[in-house]
Amino acid sequence: MNLETNKAIVRQFIERIFGAGDFAAVDELIAPDATFHTYRFGDDPRAGMRSAIERVSAGLSDGAFKIHRLVAEDDFVCAHVTSVGTQTGTLMGMPPTGRRYEIEELHLFRIRDGKVTEHWHQYDQMGMMRQLGVGQER
Hints:
The protein is α+β, with helices and mostly antiparallel strands. It has one domain: Nuclear Transport Factor 2, Chain: A, CATH 3.10.450. It is about 35% helix and about 40% strand. It has a five-stranded mixed sheet with strand order 1-5-4-3-2. A hairpin with a 2-residue loop joins strand 2 and strand 3.
C-alpha cells in the first residue's frame, strides 16, 4: 500500500467509525487481530470498537471530527483532529452535563493489507473535563 492509500483508510476510519458510528466500517477497516493500545479491547477488537461506539453514542449528541492533517510514513499514519460534542447522556461514568466540548486529539494508526492493525490515541482529557464542568458546581 502506498502512503496516500493508507491516509485514505485512516480518513475513512475517522469519518465512518468515529464520526458516524458505522458498524459495517468496523469489520471493513479493522483487522481481526488489531491492537488498540489506548482502549484495551481484549480478544475481539472489532466487538470492543462496536461497544465503544454504543457507549459514546449514548453519552454524546452531535459529535463530530474535523481532520486537520494526516501524516504518513511507512505503514503508519498520524491524524491530528478536533472533536466536538454535547454530553447529553452518561459519558465515561459522568452524568449528563448538557455542555459542549471541543478538543484536539492525536491518533497514530498502523495499516496492513488495507486495515488498521494498531492504534494509539492521545487527547486533551483535562480540557474536555473542564469544558464539561466536571468537578465544578453547576
